[in-house]
Amino acid sequence: MKIVLPGGTGQVGTVLKRALSAAGHDVVVLSRQPRQQDEVRWDGATLGPWAGEIDGSDVVVNLAGRSVNCRYTPANLREMMDSRVHSARVVGEAIAAAARPPRVWLQMSTATVYAHRYDAPNDEATGVIGGTEPDVPGYWSYSVDIARAWEREQQAAGTPHTRKVALRAAMVMSPDRGGVFDVLSRLARLGLGGPVAGGAQYVSWIHDQDFVRAVEFLVARDDITGPVNLAAPGPLPHRDFMRALRTAWGVPVGLPATRWMAEAGAFVLRSDTELLLKSRRVVPGRLLDAGFTFGRPDWPAAADDLVRRLRGRAVS
């Protein structure tokens, strides 16, 4: 198959491209700064020669959007919104104009669309969409607005011959340098991987190999449309999540952090505390109902595998 990955140069795109290319697919990445032979220039906002890559392709997986690993200033939030909405809109325009449109368009979204909650898990059928929770920072609702606008652009696109799926993805855990697992691992190995603000907030995640397998599953299943949660079935509280990660690294102790310590650390790292403090208790209802089987459903075993692979990469 020919698979086009708009915005495929980030961590998730790297994971997908590596696996899909190894499986024998023709993978083309659309990038603002192409550096390799299989990367094609686009600006993520306007139609151009790059649209020819979509015409005649089999699958489009749109991953484009400014990284959320930044300070949530008004300017950065606006850039996060615009980069996602504009790219989804122009991908839809390219598919609509194609003489031979792809049969499926997988649009990246985010599990952050769901409410900050501890009481019950969020699946696609009964999950609570966020934005109105009490006692959380007001700007958190903007992250939900971004996710909803992102999905609306895909839904509104006039692509009658192309099936559309929105990937409400949790954090994709891979051993790649600079990814979220790498960052959390460095904290754990330094003895800083304790619970943050009590650690009761839930962490939703998905192992990189399960993410790839879920994408392949959704490409193959012509009967699935709309939002799908890409998250392991075992979200767990932050304190347990970090304990399992420390165990995988053989680190017995992790210093806890208060909310203000987390805010200070996030400021230094030019990131935002929402990534640590929001309780994302998301489960993959539609995937499980459709018969998808996770290879790494539980975090301790997944962490062990990722640590082994990261260590192996460091040795090689």
List the topology elements:
Elements: E1 2-6, H1 11-22, E2 26-31, E3 39-41, H2 51-54, E4 59-62, H3 74-97, E5 104-108, H4 140-156, E6 163-169, E7 171-173, H5 180-189, E8 202-203, E9 205-207, H6 208-220, E10 226-230, E11 236-237, H7 238-249, H8 259-268, H9 274-277, H10 285-289, H11 299-315
Parallel strand pairs: 1-2, 1-4, 2-3, 4-5, 5-6, 6-10, 7-9
Antiparallel strand pairs: 8-11
Helix pairs in contact: 1-6, 3-4, 5-7, 7-11
Label this structure with key terms.
316 residues; alpha/beta; 11 helices; 11 strands; globular
Write a concise synopsis of the structure shown.
41% of the residues lie in helices and 14% in strands.
Would you count the extended β strands for me? 11
Number of helices: 11
Largest sheet: 7 strands, parallel
Strand content is 5-15%
| Sequence stretches where pLDDT stays below 50 over 5 or more residues | none
Radius of gyration: 19 Å
- In the sheet with the most strands, the strands line up as 3-2-1-4-5-6-10
Q: Characterize the overall form.
A: globular
User: What separation lies between the terminal Cα atoms?
Assistant: 31 Å
| Mean of all residue-level pLDDT scores | 91
Structural class: alpha/beta
- The percent range for helix content is 40-55%
Q: What is the ordering of alpha helices and beta strands?
A: EHEEHEHEHEEHEEHEEHHHHH
